[in-house]
Each structure stands twice: as C-alpha cells, then as structure tokens.
Design brief:
Blueprint lengths: L2 H6 L22 E2 L5 E5 L9 E2 L6 E2 L4 E4 L8 E2 L4 E9 L7 E8 L20 H10 L12 H4 L10 E5 L9 H8 L1 H15 L3 E7 L3 H10 L6 E6 L8 H9 L14 E5 H13 L5 E7 L7 E6 L4 H7 L10 E3 L6 E2 L13 E4 L18 H5 L6 H9 L3 H8 L9 H5 L6 H16 L1
Parallel strand pairs: 1-14, 9-10, 9-12, 10-11, 13-17
Antiparallel strand pairs: 2-8, 3-5, 4-7, 5-6, 7-8, 13-14, 15-16, 15-17
Helix pairs in contact: 4-6, 5-8, 11-12, 11-14, 12-14
Amino acid sequence: MGLLSFLTGLTFPRGVHPPGLKEDTRDKPIRRLPFAPRVVVPLQQHFGRPARPLVVKHQEVLRGQPVAEADGFESVTLHAPVTGVVEGIELMPTARGPKTEAIVIRTAPGDSQAIHWARPLELERLNRPQLIQAIQDIGLVGQGGAAFPTHMKLSVPDGHDIDTLVVNGCECEPYLSADHRIMLEQTDAVIAGIRIAMKAVGATRAVIGVEDDKPDAIAALQARLDKEGPISVGKVRSKYPQGSEKMLIKALLKREVPSGHFPYHIGVVVNNVGTMAQLGTLLPRGEGLVERVVTVAGPGITRPGNYRVPIGTPLRYLLQHVGFTGNDASHIILGGPMMGNTVSSLDVPITKGVSGVVVLPDPEDEDVRIQPCIRCGRCVEACPVGLNPSDLGKLAAVRQYEVMEERYHLNDCFECGCCSYVCPSNIPLVQYFRIAKSLNRERLK
C-alpha cells in the first residue's frame, strides 16, 4: 500500500465527490412501517425469469408462506409479505412503466402479522449445492439495488476458485443510509451471513469495505470480529462510485477485473452488507424474504428515516406515512439520485431491490437545458472505468450503437452517472448509454 493510500484511505482512480446529504437519516434507528391494507407482489422483481404463482384468487395466505415458485435456476421464490387473502393475479404498474403480473393480497385487519411460515435449517449439515438451493428457496436477491438472485451470485462456475468474499458496506449514493444502519443495528446478522456466504463459495477470507465517513460502523464490525480471524474490515475512501464491485475490488485487493469478465475470474465474489444481514437472519430460520430496510429521504419528505418496509407496499402508502403530500411522481427516485430511476406512478410497489426512495424538489427554476459538448474532458476525468463518455455520447447522437459497443467498450459502462453529474452542458450521457445498450441487446435477440 502506498503512502498516499495509507493517508487518504483505499480507493480507485477517478470518480466524483457528490455531497453526501445523509444528515437527516444516518443517525436515525430503523423503524417499522405500518402494514398497508393491500400489498402488490410482482412476479418479476428480480433479475431473471419471473416466478410462477402458487396461489389463486380468494385463497388465504400466511405471512412468510411461498406464493410463487422459482421458474428455473434464474429465478427465486416469492413469499407473502402479509397474512391476508389473495384478491387476484393482475397486471399492475411498475416503476419503469410497463405493467407486469403481480399477486395482490388484502391484508387481514387485526392480525399480528407475525411470521407464520418457516422451515428452520441445520446449516452445518448442508453441503454447497444444498446451501445454494436453500438460499434460492428463501427468495433472497441483492439488497443493494440490482436485485440479482443471491444464490446465482454465490454459484461459482466450474473451473474458478474463490479465495476472497468482498462485502460492500460503502453506500456511496447521496441520501441513502440503510446499509449504514444495518451495520450498526444488525452487526451480528451481517457477520453470520458472511460466514454462510464464505461456505457457499469456498472463500478462505472476507473483507468488508466501509467508507471512512462511517467510523461508527467500522468500529461496530471490528468489535465483533477476531483480529486474527478470516473476516476483516477495510476502510476505503469516501468517493463515488466506491460501492461498485469492480471499484471496490480494486480499492481493497488491488486486483483488476478485465474487460468483459466477472469478479469470479480473479477469485472474488462481491455481496452487499444488506444482503448478508438478510442471509444471516433468514436462512437459519428457513424464512422467506418478506421485508427490507429502505431509506426515505429528500427535501420533499418531512419525516425522513430508515424504515423496515414489507415487500409489495404501495409507494403512495409509504409516502403518506413519511410526510409527502404531493401527487406528482416525476421527481421521486427509487434508489439513489446517481443510479436510481424515477417512477412512473405513485401506485408502484416497493420491491426486493429498492434500497431507497428519494423525493427531490421540482427543478423548474434551474437551467437544465442541454447544450452542445464543449470538449472540456470532465467526463473523461470522472469515468471510473476509463472510458471516453464524450465520444460515446456523440456516437449515440447519430445512433452508432454497434460502434459504441465494438470499438468504444460501451458494455464496460456500469451506468454510475459520473459523466452526467460533471457535464457542464447538461448532456444526459448515462441515459444515452442505457438506451444504446438496450437496443444492442434487442438486436442480438
């Protein structure tokens, strides 16, 4: 480790430093949100194939009961977030616009809403394939936002040996503090989940990367760990996008994931601390994923905080309980402001991958007009992968999407938004790149 890294904290080249804006939520303990009168459980709320319904209209269900089964390996089980009655399986709105099939459950009034369905496991008796199957059965997906099925993340392809599990506790997105609170309040669950994940991938060590602006989380984790044990904490520099898996691997391990490759190619698997906490809590009990911690923040909220929210809770219901009185969804972001997506309707549900809800003010008084590129090079200096967003943007403008992919490494872009953030011409570069990648995928079908 060089002297500069020692003094400033481990990090990666380039990136940006947006304001943290976490003051309203980082010191507030996790609170439980009341149960909505009705929840909407989309069959497609994870990367991969939609789940297949196991219930029918008018059927009574118990909280925690499986209501949809995994449709093959690239899918996960879904569980009832509430005890109640199935009102139907209907097409319901999603955050990105198109409707998708969802199980609508009417919550039973007066019920305690305790978990009524569980199958405790003796984890020490499970071999690796059985462990992977058990993780799929609890319906766990990545809690950092991508919603990639955890059992797939922990299923290392043949021929690849994993020596290190990297755990992402950076939470570098502005406003979000759910992971921070999880590390403070569910420390033992995080560590228990890490031990399970290490067994699943065969790793001999684990490193938890935490940004240096969270000293209390670092202290809480270190207090529970043996200094000579296989799990350690790595303090990394507070910078965006430090939480990206390739950036975090580079900062902590000084290893480079080659273009077109995945972390397992260099002996690493990366998981989020929230995912580890869910794994450490749910798997020993044999319980399904029915709720998650969500940061709700932003200037449009009067009661910001970190809330434990049942999966399927309508966004409108959540916002009513945190002091949002508007009816406009155009400035509401699911996730963080850098990589999150605006919603199309207040009636979309909170799904397994939603880490935050950020309500921003109306920018109508700001000058957000798109101007021509002035070749300032700020986007090149900011891109953590070393791409040239300016050239990619110009190719996108003339719809040269194949050239962007084949000659300018478009697929190495993970859509962090650094280029758009620093652009003085207000060019929505990352949005152009998302469109280009989407159209290229359609072309290959």
